[in-house]
């Protein structure tokens, strides 16, 4: 009697997860370099024993959208954006990570760091340091850093060997097993890349998911009433 409820329960659980993903996207619509996520639904069909087959929905996979966000001019010396392919190379807990969020800062020791305090790495994987007495810092299109006209290093701009194997970490960071330098990066100083979240689309998705959830809840309520009626008839 509950064949109709179990598939609906699975669908409802998936819709709740999708709502969480949408809410996270909307919350990060203004986060520099953030990449929007989507939920992947899978179908499982149970058949056999002469009974009718039953289809279950399962939503546990997430897919990141890697299309580029818009570039906003800030004029900040250490505000950097990548136009086209590539990621900045940063160190998180001793491990290289990739990010498109280029709102960097120069620490008291001259170390170039992310807003969260993670070191920014050069093309060779070493931390970048800015001379504390430097008056003018320039970043070339290939990521070359110059202080008062003298080259001091090159910001690491890399691409993953397998984009599908990248794993999202906290915020805008991604971990990957392997990466390689971008041959001709396009780094823009004084710009930041905005989130690639489209709030209008996400709100439309939220409304659609909410309507689908309410429809499923209505079906479960009616199915519950039907089963209760059948049980009362059996007791008579």
Keywords:
3-stranded antiparallel sheet, 236 residues, 17 strands, 4-stranded antiparallel sheet, 2 helices, alpha+beta, 32% strand
Describe the structure.
The structure is a single chain. The protein has 236 residues and is α+β, with helices and mostly antiparallel strands. 25% of the residues lie in helices and 32% in strands. It has 2 helices and 17 strands. It has helices at 5-27, 199-235, and strands at residues 37-48, 51-64, 71-73, 80-82, 87-92, 95-99, 105-106, 112-113, 137-139, 144-147, 150-154, 157-160, 167-168, 174-175, 179-181, 187-189, 191-193. The strands form 7 sheets. Strands 6-5-12-15 form a 4-stranded antiparallel sheet, with no helix packed on it. It has a 3-stranded antiparallel sheet with strand order 9-10-11, with no helix packed on it. It has a two-stranded antiparallel ribbon with strand order 1-2. β9 and β10 (144-147) form a beta hairpin. It is elongated and about 95 Å long. The mean pLDDT is 87.
Furnish the topology, listing elements before pairings.
Blueprint: H1 5-27, E1 37-48, E2 51-64, E3 71-73, E4 80-82, E5 87-92, E6 95-99, E7 105-106, E8 112-113, E9 137-139, E10 144-147, E11 150-154, E12 157-160, E13 167-168, E14 174-175, E15 179-181, E16 187-189, E17 191-193, H2 199-235
Antiparallel strand pairs: 1-2, 3-17, 4-16, 5-6, 5-12, 7-8, 9-10, 10-11, 12-15, 13-14
């Amino acid at each position: 009697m509950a064949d109709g409820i179990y598939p609906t329960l699975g669908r409802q659980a998936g819709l709740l997860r999708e709502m969480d993903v949408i809410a996270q996207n909307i919350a990060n619509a203004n986060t520099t370099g953030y990449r929007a996520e989507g939920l992947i639904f899978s179908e499982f069909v149970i058949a056999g024993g002469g009974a009718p087959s039953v289809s279950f929905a399962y939503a546990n996979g997430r897919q990141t959208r890697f299309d580029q966000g818009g570039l906003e001019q800030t004029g900040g010396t250490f505000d950097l954006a990548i136009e086209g392919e590539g990621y900045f190379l940063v160190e998180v807990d001793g491990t290289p990570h990739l990010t498109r969020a280029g709102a960097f800062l120069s620490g008291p020791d001259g170390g170039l760091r992310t807003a969260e305090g993670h070191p920014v790495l050069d093309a060779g994987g070493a931390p970048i340091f800015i001379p504390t007495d430097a008056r003018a810092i320039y970043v070339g299109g290939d990521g070359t850093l110059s202080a008062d006209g003298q080259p001091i290093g090159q910001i690491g701009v890399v691409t993953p060997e397998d984009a599908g194997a990248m794993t999202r970490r906290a915020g805008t960071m991604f971990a990957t097993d392997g990466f390689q330098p971008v041959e001709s990066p396009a780094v823009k100083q004084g710009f930041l890349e905005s989130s690639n979240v489209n709030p209008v689309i996400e709100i439309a998705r939220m409304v659609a998911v909410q309507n689908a959830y309410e429809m499923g809840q209505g079906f479960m309520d009616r199915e519950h009433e039907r089963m209760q009626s059948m049980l009362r008839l059996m007791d008579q």
